[in-house]
């Protein structure tokens, strides 16, 4: 056989990669929508294969429960709600699927996606076509900072996570550790993709005005097999608390190796891996007392989150398990907001009318299943949604701050004090 | 400072042992069958899942489960070689690349469908135990993985050097057609090689479980590391793989601690490229000609 030329090799590799990406699109196309002007058809873009599958699927479930519930209660303006699903495991697939839903399926409203990179790409398509896009779960600030007309987000952005953390430190944690905010030493260990990097930047922005001292910032690869260097570097900076922005495997690894290397300072997670049950199951005692900030989870003051228990029951009935994370709840909340807005717009999906309905629509905090309120600003961001602070206690993730949402008082736990 | 350096060295060596372990199977497959096995990380992933389920359903200790996981993965390797690789041994290079990339995708999604996207870990009584050697903290499961890696490498080295099979492997790696002309049953040998390579990947998976997490796409990073280690050390050379792993592990550890954790991967890739520029067949490769990788 003759030797392969470089051109052939490159072409083949390119073709190989392209087909791999295509498999994602072709293998799982969305379902066809209904016929006629009847049902209200909404595009639902979520990653249910690939690396993001776990929480992408979880997110979709929340949105789907909302749809079924609403349909049982008469739908929107008398019409049934139908989702046209698209699996979007990667950004270029998100773009092509959004294009397909808008041009071929002729949808005028899209929801999704859980992941910031996917959200950014899919919403670009929507914005360009003047089609409505509601993000229900991704948190990167940039998403709404772009200020696109028809793009909205129901969940809090990353900077609200950072704001909650800093507020908690200022109002409770610093004094517990015997420090004034100006004396407080804060280390940040974050995974180095867009998620971790942008949240880390937000934390710095929120911490500076309050006077907290950022003594080290350590970006790391979420898939690293060993985080000992991160732990050693953080330890060297002698922090009072380490804020971690991690996915699942690194959250686990960080806590374990922090314990093995005697880190000594409490860890404060920022959603992501730190909210998963698998975190505490694997890490055990080393995870007890770890703080976290995230979307509303399930151990929360139910008076502040009416509808939460019903949601959990519906989830259990539909999927035969407990919700895996707060993402389903956040998407449930978001989908309901979308439906309410469409109801305000009398079932019209036309972007001007939807836009007007969005501006007119407000909800007080403490009256929804997540406890979040609704108040969209000029960039389409819901400014009334606030992530709560939680703590892992005896294997459960309990809400500890703010008081109205808390089920337990926060407490410094032995090994981390 | 000395303590920090010592800790970093220890962490680097243990990490390198893990890398070498993961790469050992690929060394056999790549070195003998000359197939760029893009699915190697997925074989490790299967080993990890097998270990996880044996532990969570029957409470079998991960180290004990090697007795079941290794033969199971051996079988998987033989099947893959027979059904996926053998038919295309004489096909174009493109087909071979596509085949294992395809296999990788299939295994990843197969795992996703069967096991879900959740992150699974094994917690044993010794998972987080550390042994203190002076001021240095050494995690026990990682130490065990390292020690077993050494034993395995010693065994593989002896296999290659002192047994007939080992010599046949080397012969086939050097020149397949001539080996065939000399009476070596190449196809049978390939089955054995792939099976062995897969079994080693399974053992690596089992040894990883006490301290690593498994999820369907975990194999991607393992495949990459395995390739770097194997090529750095020299294809088909067992000592090379072990030393390559240690070098990568130490580089990772030092650059992460003294430069930045997010630069560690970049650093060892730079090192990798530099070594290849100077010695294309790897640090301990057999020299010109043996770096060809079955793309012919």
Folded structure, characterized:
The complex is a heterodimer of chains A (417) and B (296). With 417 residues, chain A is an alpha/beta fold. Chain A folds into 2 domains: 223 residues, Response regulator (Rossmann fold); 166 residues, Rossmann fold (3-Layer(aba) Sandwich), CATH 3.40.50. Chain A is 43% helix and 16% strand. Chain A is built from 13 helices and 14 strands. In chain A, helix 5 links the parallel strand 4 and strand 5. In chain A, helix 1 packs across helix 3 and helix 2 packs across helix 12. The longest helix of chain A has 21 residues. In chain B, strand 1 and strand 2 form a beta hairpin. In chain B, helix 2 runs parallel beside helix 4 and helix 9 crosses helix 10. Helix content of chain B is 72%, strand content 3%. Chain B has a single domain, classed as ABC transporter involved in vitamin B12 uptake, BtuC. Chain B is mainly α and 296 residues long. At the A-B interface, helix 1, helix 2, strand 7, helix 8 and helix 9 of A face helix 1, helix 4 and helix 10 of B.
Biggest sheet of chain B, open or closed, and with what strands and sense?
2 strands, antiparallel
User: How is the largest sheet of chain B built, in terms of strand order?
Assistant: 1-2
Q: How many distinct beta strands of chain A?
A: 14
CATH classification class of chain B: Mainly Alpha
Per CATH, the superfamily of the largest domain in chain A is Response regulator
Number of E-state strands of chain B: 2
Q: List unreliable stretches of 5+ residues of chain B.
A: none
Write the H/E string of chain A, N to C: HEHEHEHEHEHEHEHEHEHEHHHEEEE
What fraction, in percent, of the residue positions of chain B are helical? over 70%
What CATH calls the topology of the largest domain in chain A is Rossmann fold
């Amino acid at each position: 056989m003759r030797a392969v030329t470089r051109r052939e090799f490159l072409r083949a590799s390119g073709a190989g990669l392209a087909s791999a990406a295509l498999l994602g699109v072709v293998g799982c196309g969305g379902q066809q929508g209904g016929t006629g002007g009847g049902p209200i058809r909404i595009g639902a873009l979520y990653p249910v294969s690939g690396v993001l599958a776990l929480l992408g699927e979880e997110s979709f479930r929340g949105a789907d429960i909302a749809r079924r519930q609403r349909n049982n209660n008469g739908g929107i303006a008398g019409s049934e709600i139908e989702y046209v699903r698209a699996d979007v495991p990667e950004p270029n697939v998100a773009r092509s699927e959004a294009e397909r839903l808008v041009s071929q399926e002729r949808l005028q409203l899209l929801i999704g996606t859980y992941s910031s990179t996917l959200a950014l790409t899919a919403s670009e398509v929507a914005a360009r076509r003047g089609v409505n896009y509601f993000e229900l779960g991704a948190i990167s600030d940039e998403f709404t900072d772009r200020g696109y007309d028809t793009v909205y987000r129901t969940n809090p952005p990353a900077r609200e996570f950072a704001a909650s953390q800093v507020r908690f430190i200022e109002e409770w944690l610093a004094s517990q550790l015997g420090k004034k905010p100006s004396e407080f030493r804060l280390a940040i260990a974050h995974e180095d993709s867009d998620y971790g990097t942008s949240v880390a930047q937000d934390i710095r922005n929120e911490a500076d005005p309050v006077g907290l001292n950022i003594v080290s910032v350590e970006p790391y690869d979420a898939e690293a097999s060993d985080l000992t260097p991160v732990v050693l570097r953080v330890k060297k900076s002698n922090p009072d608390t380490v804020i971690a922005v991690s996915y699942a495997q690194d959250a686990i690894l960080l806590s374990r190796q922090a314990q093995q290397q005697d880190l000594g300072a409490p860890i404060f997670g920022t959603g992501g891996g730190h909210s998963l049950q698998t975190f505490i199951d694997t890490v055990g005692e080393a995870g007890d007392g770890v703080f976290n900030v995230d979307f509303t989870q399930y151990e929360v003051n139910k008076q502040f989150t009416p509808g939460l228990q019903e949601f959990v029951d519906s989830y259990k009935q539909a999927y035969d398990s407990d919700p895996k994370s707060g993402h389903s709840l956040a998407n449930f909340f978001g989908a309901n907001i979308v439906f309410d807005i469409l109801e305000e717009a009398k079932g019209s999906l036309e972007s001007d009318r939807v836009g007007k309905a969005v501006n007119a629509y407000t909800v007080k905090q403490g009256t929804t299943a997540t406890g979040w309120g609704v108040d969209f600003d000029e960039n389409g961001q819901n400014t009334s949604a606030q992530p709560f602070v939680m703590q892992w206690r005896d294997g459960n993730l309990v809400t500890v701050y703010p008081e109205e949402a808390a089920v337990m008082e926060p407490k410094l736990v032995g090994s981390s004090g | 400072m000395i303590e920090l350096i010592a800790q970093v060295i220890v962490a680097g060596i243990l990490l390198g042992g893990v890398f070498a372990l993961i790469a050992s199977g690929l060394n056999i497959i790549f070195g003998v069958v000359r197939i760029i096995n893009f699915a190697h990380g997925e074989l490790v992933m299967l080993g990890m899942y097998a270990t996880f389920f044996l532990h969570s359903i029957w409470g079998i200790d991960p180290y004990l489960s090697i007795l079941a996981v290794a033969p199971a993965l051996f079988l998987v390797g033989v099947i893959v070689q027979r059904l996926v690789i053998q038919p295309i041994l004489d096909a174009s290079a493109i087909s071979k690349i596509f085949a294992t990339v395809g296999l990788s995708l299939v295994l990843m999604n197969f795992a996703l469908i069967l096991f879900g996207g959740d992150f699974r870990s094994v917690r044993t009584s010794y998972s987080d135990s550390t042994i203190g050697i002076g001021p240095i903290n050494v995690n026990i499961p990682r130490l065990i993985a390292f020690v077993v890696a050494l034993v395995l490498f010693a065994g593989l080295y002896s296999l290659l050097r002192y047994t007939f099979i080992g010599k046949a492997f080397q012969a086939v790696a050097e020149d397949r057609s001539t080996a065939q002309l000399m009476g070596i049953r190449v196809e049978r040998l390939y089955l054995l090689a792939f099976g062995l390579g897969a079994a080693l990947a399974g053992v690596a998976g089992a040894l990883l479980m006490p301290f690593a997490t498994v999820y369907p796409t975990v194999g991607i990073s393992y495949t990459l590391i395995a390739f770097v280690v194997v090529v750095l050390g020299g294809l088909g050379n067992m000592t090379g793989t072990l030393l390559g792993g240690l070098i990568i592990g130490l580089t990772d550890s030092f650059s992460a601690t003294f430069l930045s954790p997010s630069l560690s991967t970049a650093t060892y890739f730079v090192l990798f490229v530099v070594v290849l520029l100077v010695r294309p067949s790897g640090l301990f490769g057999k020299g010109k000609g043996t770096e060809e990788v079955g793309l012919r």
